[in-house]
Write a structure and sequence with these properties.
Elements: H1 6-26, H2 29-51, H3 56-80, H4 83-110
Helix pairs in contact: 1-2, 1-4, 2-3, 3-4
Amino acid sequence: MGEIDYPGYAYGAAVAFGGIMGYMKKRSVPSLMAGVAFGSLAMFGAYSVSKDGKSGASLAPAIGTSALLCGVMGARALKSGKLMPAGMIAILSLGMLTRYSFMFYNLNTKQ
């Protein structure tokens, strides 16, 4: 078992919390479903990185989730022109994508 991916778990919790808040404020069921689903995927990615973290396959769920959220929420933020909530999730996703990509890069350079 590798190091625990605390930033990954915090990111997943933030995404899930955003979906829950979207539901509480606007009664948006799609926000709730998407937030909880993508938050769960992000937490699974963090678990996968925590468990192994030494192979591309263990980084794939985390990279895929953060890349997808970065693209989708970034496009929503640009379209709406608002930082909250889509822009903040896009920024967090970009940070996590950068982190996981750096981890993936280091895997390939060590071999």
